[in-house]
Amino acid sequence: MDASTDSKGEGHAPQRLLVAGGFLFLAVLGIRWIANTLVWLHLTTGRFVAEHGIPRTDTLSFTADGSPWIAATWLYDRVLYALWGLGAPVVILVHVGLVLGAFALLIGRTRGWACGASIALGLTVSGWLLAPQFTVSPIVAAIALTAVFMFALARPLPAPALWPVLLVGQILWTNMHPSFFFGPIICVVFAVEASRRSPDDDLAAPEGGLLASRTAWSLAIATAAATLLNPYGPKLHVHIIGLLSDPT
To answer: How far apart are alpha carbons 71 and 176 in whole angstroms?
Structure first.
């Protein structure tokens, strides 16, 4: 190794330490007592799914017993119940790992635009903003899947991997958290960007190329169709729209 390589490596060391500090800050925020009371509802639902299958009617609440029930997070609840059998520390560490993995994917797509100090600052600010939601909750799974979509589309994966990653990710998202409609929206955003791009931009694209407009629009349509692959069909969409339009 020559002197120039040594010097370059030493220059990158402080940057890596800053980024590592940002990740450590995120991890510290997530490693804490489980204080989210909704965890018990998710665990109870997960136990019901494990013992009786996907719920269709409410059997867990006194006032709504027998009423139709759409468990929008049933898959997350089932996974959470399985993890709970391994112990609460495992549950916490898995959720922390999902968030750290999400930011690691996004950093992999931003290294050409930002130095280590900027990335560390971004991680710190993101962690501060995320802190109220950074607990054992299905929103953590949604954060991870959002990162997967952006990672796969920003410098698109090869077609044999891009389609299954996004379609499987969309199906998982649909059955884990009500924010699943963000999957097709992310695809639409990339499709609009691709449609507005000039041919010169494609020629100047970095290695790996840019997402083609036709592919992006096709993915938007396919992921939207994939949201129907849930136990409740279109009723889930109606339910989510009702939640969004409810003033409470």
So the answer is: 9
Secondary structure letter of residue 97 according to DSSP: H
pLDDT averaged over the chain?
88
Measured in degrees and rounded to the nearest 5, phi and psi for residue 57 equal: -125, 150
Per-position b or e across 216-232, b if 16+ CB within 10 A of its CB = bbebbeebbebbeebeb
Res 111 pLDDT > 80: no
Angle at 129 between CA 125 and CA 135, to 5 degrees: 125
C-alpha torsion 9→11→15→17, nearest 10: 70
Is there a contact between 119 and 127 (Cβ–Cβ < 8 Å)? Answer: no
Q: Residue 31, SS3?
A: coil
Residue 140 has pLDDT above 70, yes or no: yes
Nearest to 216 by CA among 185, 247, 240, 237: 185
- Which of 150, 195, 146 is CA-nearest to residue 172? 146
Q: What is the pLDDT of residues 28-43, one digit of tens each?
A: 999 988 888 899 999 9
Which tokens go with 151? 């990672």
Nearest to 231 by CA among 77, 80, 75: 75
Task: Identify whether the C-beta of residue 140 lies closer than 8 Å to the C-beta of residue 134.
Answer: yes
Contacts of 194 (CB under 8 A, 6+ apart): 210, 211, 212, 213, 215, 216
User: Which helix H or strand E contains 79, and what residues bound it?
Assistant: helix 74-84
| Count of residues making up the chain | 248
Give the number of other Cβ atoms within 10 Å of residue 113's Cβ. 8
